[in-house]
Every structure is written in structure tokens, then in C-alpha cells.
Amino acid sequence: MSKEERKIRRKRKKRIRLGILIAIIACVLFAFFPSFYSSNSGTHLIEKERIEKTIESKTIVVKKESIYESKGEGNLKFHYEEGEKIGKGEKLVTHNSNSSNYDYNTQIEEVDKKIAKLKDDNKSNILFSDDIKKLQNEIDVLTKKISSKVKDDETEGLDDLREKLEEKIGKKNKMTQNEGFLAQRIEELEEKKNRLTKDMNNNNNTYYSKEPGIISYEFDNLEEVYSYKNVLTMEPKDINLDKQTPFNTKELTKIEFGQPVVKVINNFNWYILAKLPIEKANSLNKGDNIRVRVKEDGQDLKGNIINLKSDKKNTLVLIEFDSFLHKYYKERFLEVDLILKTYEGLKIPSKAIVEKDGLKGVYTKNVDTVIKFKPIKILYENEDFSIVDQGERGNIYIGEDKERYSTVTSYDEVIIDGNLINKYIEK
């Protein structure tokens, strides 16, 4: 055999091997990716899917924080690093004051002024007590009239009565809505005054922890506004999502009297406060467990709804957690997804769903192009796709009699071509 013939023979073998390789690749593609070619033939390959029904919300982080304030001007010696966990009775900060006399009286006077103003505001509410009683009596009368008309199927004047009732309730709420919040705030200021008086008497310049927790030197001036005690009495209108400029006491060159210098955060329980449109929150109930996902890092949190408070438009949802505070103890705001429900099943295009003989289902096609109608049980649906029950071993049970039907399974080919569907429905 000549050199030229051997060369031609080698080229022929290479072509044969290349052809075999291409054929193998094509077979693999058609075996493992049937949806690649089925989509062009008016069908769709069914696959398992997990869908979550969620509500997006920018929430406020609420912590149980004990704040220790400066007892005078001067330098501070810090004994722990940011974020460390400490026990009760630990030495937190030593204050080296520039003078031996601390101006406690100045701050006590400021607290007294705040208390006096809040008490005046509270007196205004008390002055309205007779008016509130009168409004309540009018509300009771209107409620009875409306109930009577509804019971007797009388519609004349019903809308007017309902309008008057709503007006009376609005007036009453306006008079009473601040009463609980003001009382709570006065109590907190009284406690602060007592602490200042005690510190002044002791003249002690060393700060000891009164409870265990996480130590922090970062403040945003919202610690008292969004304290745990306050949020329990807050209304949706009280929520403000504007950020404050934070500061770290370790970075300050000068410490003034009464300025917060360190705080200890309870590391067992913490909370988020979510303000939601009332129609989105209507499925939530006090005591419900709920999953929450932090958008920034994808962390899933297991929480419990401990308080709900609504007005005409919004609902304030308070959720408690008992883990992962170490990741978020510095945060005041978190963007999260509240996960209301999770659906797991088979995903199919909604346009493939038809009704036959009173049953909802889809038409499927097997490798032999045999067309078959299969009933389905829908778990979740929207305009584009639906999640259906995959059943037990390919069977679902429908109706009061729990009649068994063979349903769709993973990798069934569902017909989505409208003309083909109509053709088989007619049959």
C-alpha cells in the first residue's frame, strides 16, 4: 500500500470516528433534554418546583437594650470589644472624670421638664373623658340601630347610620389613641430620673453590667424610641423608616454628661416590626409561627407573631426570634421577605390546563405520541404557571368520595398547543 493510500485511509477513519462521536452526543442530548425538542412541538416537560408566597417589607429591628450613660465629662476606659458576650456584674467602662462633681441636677431637671410636658398632654386626654363616654354611648345606640335594620332587612337609611358610626368611632380613637403611649413614656422617664438620682448619690464612676448580653458601643438615637416596651403600644402611624446617623462612643474625642457610652443587648430574644397594608396582613394571626428571609444575606429565620395592631389602612406586625441576633445586633432596619406559605409540587403552564367531564386536568403525550387526559389537583396558580399535587405514587384523590385518579408525574410531556388541546377536548 502506497504512502498516499495510507494517508487517505487514515483520513477516512478519522471521519468515521467523528461521525460516531456526533451521533453519541446527539443521542445523549435527546435522551436527557427532551424539553429541547418538545417545546417546538407544542408540548412542555413537567418538572418539580417549589414556590413561596411572600410579602416584602422594610422592617425595624427591636432589641432589649440596657443603656449606660456618662456620669460626667472626661475619658473612658473600655474593658470589652464590640460584640463580645458578657455576664451579669461585669466591669464595662471606667470613667476618668475631669471633675469630682458631676452635673446630675442639670439632666434631672431636663427629665422633669419632659415628664411635666407629657403629663400636661395626658391631662388633655383625661379632660375629654366625659366626651369619650358620650361618644361611646352614641356608638352603642348606632350599633343597635344598624343591627336591627340588618336583622329586619331594612336598607333605608342604613348607609347614613354606618357613615355616622364610622365618624363617631374616628373621633373616639383620635381622643384615646395617645393615652397608652404617653403613660408608657412617662414611666420610662420616671425610671431614668430614679437612676440618675441613685447615681448622683453613689457618685460611682465605674459601670457594671446589670444583665448578661452582647456589648455594643454603637448608637443611632432610636434605642428608646423603638424599645421593646414602646413598640407594644405603638400604632402603624408611629412608624418612621428614616435612618439616623449612627455613632460609636469609642470613636468620640469628647464625652459629655448624660451621653450614652455603652449598651448591653439581651441576646436571647429580639424582634422585627413590620408595617404592612392591611389586605396583605389579613392572613396573619397572633401566635402564628412564620419564616422570615433576610434579603441581604438570604438567612432564614424562624419567628413567632406576638402582636398585631391595625388601623384602617395598615397593620403593625411584631415578630419574635430567639437566634441569629449576633448577625444583626448592629442593625436598625432590615429588608426581609415574610414567607406566608410554601407550595411544593409539579410545575405546568397554566394555559395547558383544561376541564373535561367536570375535572381539571391536562393532556399528556408519551414517546409513542399516545395522547391521554390526566386529572390534576391545583395547589397554587397564576397567569403563567400552576403548581399541582404530585400525589401518592402518581395517584390523587378528588371529591367528597375521594375517587382515585392517575395524575401527572415528573417529566410527563404536557400539550400546550391550543389547537391540539381543542382537538382532543372535542373527542
TrEMBL record:
Which keywords does the record carry?
A: Coiled coil, Membrane, Transmembrane, Transmembrane helix
Q: Which residues span the membrane?
A: 16-37
Q: Where is the RND related beta-barrel domain?
A: 270-341
Q: Where is the RND related alpha-helical hairpin domain?
A: 103-203
Q: Which domain of life is it from?
A: Bacteria
Q: Which residues form a coiled coil?
A: 101-206
The record's InterPro entries line, in alphabetical order, gives: Beta-barrel_RND-rel, BSH_RND-rel, HH_RND-rel
A Pfam family: BSH_RND_rel
List each copy of the RND related barrel-sandwich hybrid domain by range: 65-266
The name of this protein is: HlyD family secretion protein
Per the UniProt entry, what species is this protein from, by scientific name? Anaeromonas frigoriresistens
